[in-house]
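Continued from yesterday's entry.
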Amino acid sequence: MGKITDLNITGMDPAKHAALLGDAHEMIVAGILARLGFEVGIIAVKGGPYDLWVIGYKGPSREIQPLRVQIRTVSKGGSVKFTGGTRGGRNRIYIPKVKKYKYTEKDNDLIIAVERETLDLYLIPTRFIAKWGESKSVRKLQVLKNNWDILLNWNNEFLSELEKKLPPH
């Protein structure tokens, strides 16, 4: 019997599969968030600094907070990358005008990393990464793993307290 977390059982070229996996993770995250009761939209145009939008809440009052979400794939025990503007995989084509950049709150509000082996989600407010490097190990992000309270309490007080629970960078 197969498992929901099986990968590339068809033997597709690994580079092609990596691109397909990124698209699949966008849809999986949208589905998980919808199952939780959040309004979610998938961005049709690829290549921007966010892949989804989701309606979060500022707290118990249920005042809505629209959020722009970037989806990243991470291997179990790996690191989440906080950069855009480059392509992964083999035989990638680089366009000289495209430059690597680190995400900021101008680009998106939230980065959701999908652990490819387990489908666990790490909800990382973009404001947290301003003090970090270009990536961070998921081992240091355990307080953010499947933490739906982030979407229910998107406000300065809650996010500041949550950030204090993260290990030092």
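--- second protein ---
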Amino acid sequence: MTTETSHHGMPSYWNAVITAGLITAIVYSVIGLASAYLTIAGSSGAGQGLGIGACLISSIAGVIANRMYAKGFNLTYPIGKGALLGFLAGLVTLIVGTVISLFWTEIIDTGMNEALMQSTIATLEAQGLTQDQIDQALSFSPEPGSMNAILIQFAIGFGSLSIINVISGMISAKIFAKEEE
């Protein structure tokens, strides 16, 4: 087996980063879709719980990438490189997850965004809000599926997945890529 080398003669980490990002994005997307469908079905508490679970799952991209890279090549490297691997794996997760989400809502279930909006309105009505209050609450969020909504979700995902996977990458580099004593 040949391995592509990168900077300073170290093996390339891209296979580990892309694999970790793909695995995490698929699991993250499935849980996110389940959360959305639970919310549409009226189980907003369960949907929110799964949504939190999806966020936690997204934090393991950095762990998977560092474990695959360090253990796959029996390497040691500093936590800064672990942070880089975590960041890149989180970015792959975000990009692939966004593509899966767009594919799902634009091709598979084109009514999903509208159903989520109706569920949100029903939840606000159940809380006893007036129509003016509901309209005001909805005015703070962009139309589901719009370019603004996609960009805002991507920006939030970039910030959160970057930070959490940099941290998980640093921790996992310390665990998996530590020097022998």
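The chain has a mean pLDDT of 90. Helices lie at 14-40, 44-58, 61-73, 79-108, 112-126, 131-139, 147-176. Will compare against the first tomorrow.
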